[in-house]
Amino acid sequence: MSGNSFGKLFTVTTFGESHGKALGCIIDGCPPGVEISEEEIQQDLDRRKPGTSKFTTQRREPDQVEILSGVFEGKTTGTTIGMVIHNTDQRSKDYSKIKDTFRPNHADYGYEQKYGIRDYRGGGRSSARETAMRVAAGAVAKKYLKQRYGIEIRGYMSQLGPIKAEKLDWDQVHQNPFFCPDPDKIPELEEYMNALRKSGDSIGAKITVVASGLMPGLGEPVFDRLDADLAHALMSINAVKGVEIGDGFDCIEQKGSEHRDELTPDGFLSNHSGGISGGISTGQDIVAHIAMKPTSSILLPGKSIDKDGNPVEVVTTGRHDPCVGVRATPIAEAMLAIVLMDHILRHRGQNADVNSTVPVVPASVNE
Amino acid sequence: MSGNSFGKLFTVTTFGESHGKALGCIIDGCPPGVEISEEEIQQDLDRRKPGTSKFTTQRREPDQVEILSGVFEGKTTGTTIGMVIHNTDQRSKDYSKIKDTFRPNHADYGYEQKYGIRDYRGGGRSSARETAMRVAAGAVAKKYLKQRYGIEIRGYMSQLGPIKAEKLDWDQVHQNPFFCPDPDKIPELEEYMNALRKSGDSIGAKITVVASGLMPGLGEPVFDRLDADLAHALMSINAVKGVEIGDGFDCIEQKGSEHRDELTPDGFLSNHSGGISGGISTGQDIVAHIAMKPTSSILLPGKSIDKDGNPVEVVTTGRHDPCVGVRATPIAEAMLAIVLMDHILRHRGQNADVNSTVPVVPASVNE
Amino acid sequence: MSGNSFGKLFTVTTFGESHGKALGCIIDGCPPGVEISEEEIQQDLDRRKPGTSKFTTQRREPDQVEILSGVFEGKTTGTTIGMVIHNTDQRSKDYSKIKDTFRPNHADYGYEQKYGIRDYRGGGRSSARETAMRVAAGAVAKKYLKQRYGIEIRGYMSQLGPIKAEKLDWDQVHQNPFFCPDPDKIPELEEYMNALRKSGDSIGAKITVVASGLMPGLGEPVFDRLDADLAHALMSINAVKGVEIGDGFDCIEQKGSEHRDELTPDGFLSNHSGGISGGISTGQDIVAHIAMKPTSSILLPGKSIDKDGNPVEVVTTGRHDPCVGVRATPIAEAMLAIVLMDHILRHRGQNADVNSTVPVVPASVNE
Amino acid sequence: MSGNSFGKLFTVTTFGESHGKALGCIIDGCPPGVEISEEEIQQDLDRRKPGTSKFTTQRREPDQVEILSGVFEGKTTGTTIGMVIHNTDQRSKDYSKIKDTFRPNHADYGYEQKYGIRDYRGGGRSSARETAMRVAAGAVAKKYLKQRYGIEIRGYMSQLGPIKAEKLDWDQVHQNPFFCPDPDKIPELEEYMNALRKSGDSIGAKITVVASGLMPGLGEPVFDRLDADLAHALMSINAVKGVEIGDGFDCIEQKGSEHRDELTPDGFLSNHSGGISGGISTGQDIVAHIAMKPTSSILLPGKSIDKDGNPVEVVTTGRHDPCVGVRATPIAEAMLAIVLMDHILRHRGQNADVNSTVPVVPASVNE
Q1: pLDDT class for C321, splitting at 50, 70, 90?
Q2: Most D CBs within 10 Å, among B19, B69, B119, B140, to test the D interface
Q3: Membrane-crossing residues (chains A, B, C, D) (predicted)?
């Protein structure tokens, strides 16, 4: 397989450039009988789409999804689901500057060296616009996980630059444009982002995603452990530079007696492991964090070279997100949903005969 | 594909349990003509093998590798390479306690729920012993990368519990049992580990791996980005809970003007991105960090349940590493080598015709 | 991977139902820099499209392909190529009969048992209409093979029912609606097909495909031998029941001294092996034959059951090909092209360093 | 994936050369809880092993299989199963002749052009000896299919040169060294083979394999149709040049009214389709035929070239099968078992929720 597919049994393959005709994807392996509509998928797309607040890019894309196959009379048929989103707001502009230079820290230089050719308009294939199709595919996975197994996928922005969410109020996440679960931080976030936009600079962010209601036993060691596939999925999102499962890097300084999650018949006593132990789900909440770098498309001039190797100064004009993390929560949720979906299918295939008589430990003693 | 293979073109598949007859692997897709011997592979295995210092498990395994196929007259032939390591120090002991209970935070519980059966002796397939074959396969990849492209793969322990390496002296890494690059920290590390062993507890660690001398252009966006595949590979190592590329989680608080790596004709001015931008290598050093949790096999009693769901108290006796990070550096190096090997092959396949006329920027201005 | 992708490095994934909104495909792994246009792809699609003679289904589909991504300024960029064909002639009709019964020997019964649901309109996903996207993807492969390596992919109908082509005149293949290379047989074919249509029955056919100008060395034993992948590709075409490489089933009665293709410095002396030996191309012409069954969509009543298991009599009305082999030549060519494309990429990846000094034997002594 | 793995969920990867240290394989994805022993696997290996009659090669290999992992207390654990067979009868001989020339119609020339290097001893990786591991892996699949689903896999030699089996008496198949189901043909076969051996020539054969007791619904259209994967599997066996499902090439001359398999509540009325329609199993017997070419390792001199391109005359001495078809029945059975195993796992993964209420039609009216 080349690199634009994800998942072994629930396989998502995408296409599309930032300023091309359309984005699209194919889902192969979706179970039959899942009730799904364009409207449901659209809900997740609307959460990701640009231009909904002044803190994101001002490109106006309705991101209207169209299902072309695989759904019949409102239900999936088990055959491939084709979906497209037509690009509508590709402003014609002068690309002569961007065409022959490489924005520092962008994919520009790598694509040029790799392929010897690139669609330079708006970043082409390397644009985060590509993630729209991940969200569309993830919406199908989410629906199945919820409907069939009661699994819930949620996410939030846990940090933006120096500002950390200190409360986790799930009801607040969708009440603000940042997906911030701590309502007390919203004024601070707004102020910070306003100042940032004026400065022409960008900032990093941290996103947290959680899956609840999962069964134990998902994951295919030794290489396709659930955490490994999840790290793959999350690190494949544009601008992600780090992935943590559970306590992540904090566990470097933890003792074993502190880190281990003790089990009792009434539930696990802690969840340092983020719901995955030995690469297999424990039934606790899956918790993962990602670090998103500050976008390099900024107004402040930076040093680079042109195609002939001459030094140039680059300023990125155009419409860009000053913090790509702001719209990233639905994308991370989508990737988590796709990974779980794929692993449920894989697990069922191999282990359909298993009837473990070992009691399932509740996710936590409080449940 | 099920879960015990890694790599699309350079594919490593492994088998073997901690206390079974043997460990083994098959490498499929190794280029022909690579000079390789059991002795060379053994060198890397010896770096990982247990029992070489008092800070690791006292199990005595020579980890002697045998090449069964794919190498003829000292060179790889392009056909599958089969390798085995026979287990020699599986002490017969009484497993009656471990058999019916689940060590907290171990793979025990997940395996039981997943498969309904498990080889409980020494952790079976979930034992870190499995990583020996990764090191063997990685040694072949390393040899090719070095011989054919001059790419060097190195690693070190950057932190153990609260003790951080503050100097990076590559020559020191192999002068101490910790793979620590900072000689000033060795006494502190020894003291810490001695106290830890006495306490019966365990501790986490951080490992850093670096690839130097790489070409730009490796990586297959959007899902098989180089960073995504690397995250997959590294997170698949036992006990890893976090992966960072370059600045990783530090970039959350960085501004775009600070994070971006500017290019000049004389070289990149920084390497915050860890050598990967837009999922594609830039030609700078690849730098990745992993967080390893404290092993849960400790002498301090912990709460758990047995197979019938009754509460029990578990104490893990036997031979265990108090810090699995101590022996993890060669494993992380191996996975990095395998990922790069696979991506070079994939890149060559698709882009054999490309002759980019864009000058290659030196990895850093200092080179 | 689920089942709607073909190829490891040059990967084609398709979607679409007979009477859905659209058909589509994604090509992942196409080398960059290939000059390709919708017009070129359309040429192959026009060779397959229905309704061009009275010997095929009278459904009128322009099969107009649209490229949505992956091609920029007339050249492939190395990123995924998305293509769609909108269905335009899906007659609304009464499906109440077909809905609850299973046409004998159709995919109907199997789909129902497999998925518990199916898009019954025109056969849904099991319709041969799906092959349009194979032809579109194959056109891209053909272009590359021709442009980059001078490899030519051709095909013809070698037999229809009892009528066998006895001459191979490549210039004639496109002068008749049957892709028959023997002009003397055209009147006979026309007469046969006219009688067949009147009888309401259908007939089988044999198609032969040939690749010329190939390099030796393609194929990845032991499982992904070139012949094995080709058999997979060709058998995956609707209605195919048999695949032969070279002499195929004739070799059962051949002696080794007769079958073996002797080599001389001036060329191979015969090509019984169809250009593949030991699973690897020899540089001779690849020759493969496929047997296509008579379609089961016929006007003659047949016994079947309905969804409740009751016996019913089924007559398939609607627009159908009386011989699906008539339009199958471009489809078989496309699959051959895709297989070769994929194998060239795979071969280059692993064996980029090989410089065999062994002289390449000409395909035949006559060249 | 490179080319030495077969199967997506039940994945078999093999290694080993004819005259190397050992052959081996890894099965990844075997369901847990399957009772399996070396003895059971050995039974199938003994059916394939050389030297059991004067009609096969006189190489004496016990083909003793050893299970190295994945089986614990007599049952599979769901983890990878590693198996090896050590080569014991690799006669040291003078390879100077074979080393620098290419046997006509052998893999020699292709391997040399592909890899630039080859293990020339006994054909190396291209030797049919490799198929021993397929048989070992197939034995595990057969056991599961039988034990869990009551599916039976059987095969026989249907033709050797001009001699066709005219009766199908399953009890006879294992009463003669040819796997011939027609006892009346044995004297003729013996006479033919004796004469053939004296002449120093070889002959082709046809093998038929059958799976009985299958459920409808297996197969993953459009590319991984059950027939397509089966064609891939069977064509990957050394010396196979043709694959037929059901009536195969006979259907070219069949009418649709003749070919279609009518259904009644009491069973299918015929099985022209070989148990697969639209790429999906119907529940009827799967029937497939393969054509095996005469081996090119014969005593009669043939024209070829050496490594420098000079014309040479080649005579293949050594121990060879005059008809590779004689030992091929267990190999073809093994590949059929592996394909079905893989498809059952894939089907269960995606369609675990399906509860079709449509009655299952008996395989035939006679059952």
Answers
A1: confident
A2: B69
A3: none
Contact A314, A302 (CB under 8 A): yes
The verdict on A9 touching D (C-beta cutoff 8 Å) is yes
Taking Cα atoms as reference points, which of A218, A263, A227 lies closest to residue A359? A263
Judged by a CB distance cut-off of 8 A, whether residue A219 touches chain B is yes
pTM attached to this predicted model: 0.98
* Residue ranges of domains in chain C, CATH in brackets: 5-351 (3.60.150.10)
Q: Look at the block and give the residue holding tokens 């009772």.
A: D35
- What local confidence, expressed as pLDDT, does residue A238 receive? 96
End-to-end CA distance of chain B: 42
DSSP string, D61-92: ----EEE-SSEETTEE-SS-EEEEEE------
**Chains in contact with B, where contact requires at least 3 CB pairs less than 8 Å apart:** A, C, D
Please name the residue ranges forming H helices in chain D: 38-48, 96-99, 108-115, 131-149, 186-199, 226-235, 256-259, 329-351
What single letter denotes the amino acid at residue A302? G
> Which chains does D contact via 3+ CB–CB distances below 8 A?
A, B, C
Whether C44 and C138 have beta carbons less than 8 Å apart is answered as yes
- Which band of pLDDT confidence, cut at 50, 70 and 90, is reported for residue D176? very high
Measured at the CA of A12, the angle between CA A10 and CA A18, to 5 degrees, comes to: 165
Chain A contact for C5 (CB, 8 A cutoff): yes
Closest CB to B236 among A111, A223, A257: A223
Whether residue C201 lies within 8 A of chain D, CB to CB, comes out as: yes
Contact B109 A248 (CB under 8 A): no
Compute the distance between CA of residue C200 and CA of residue B48 in angstroms, rounded to an integer. 73
CB-based contact B161 A252, cutoff 8 Å: yes
B317 is in an annotated binding site: no
Mutate to test the interface with B, among D1, D2, D73 (most CBs of B within 10 A): D2
Helical segments of B157-315, H only: 186-199, 226-235, 256-259
> Does C278 lie at the interface with B, CB-CB under 8 angstroms?
no
D240 touches A: beta carbon within 8 Å: no
Subunits that touch chain A (at least 3 Cβ pairs < 8 angstroms)? B, C, D
D165 annotated as belonging to a binding site for a ligand: no
How many other CB atoms are there within 10 angstroms of residue C288's CB atom? 28
**Which residue of C1, C125, C241 to mutate against D (max D Cβ within 10 Å)?**
C241
Amino acid at C192: Y
Closest CA to A139 of A40, A6, A16, A236: A40
Q: What is the pLDDT of residues B71-124, one digit of tens each?
A: 999 999 999 999 999 999 776 666 777 788 999 988 999 999 999 999 998 889
The region, left, alpha or beta by phi > 0 then psi within -120 to 50, assigned to residue C150 is left
Contact B203, B265 (CB under 8 A): no
Going A202 to A206 to A211 to A215, the CA torsion angle's sign is: positive
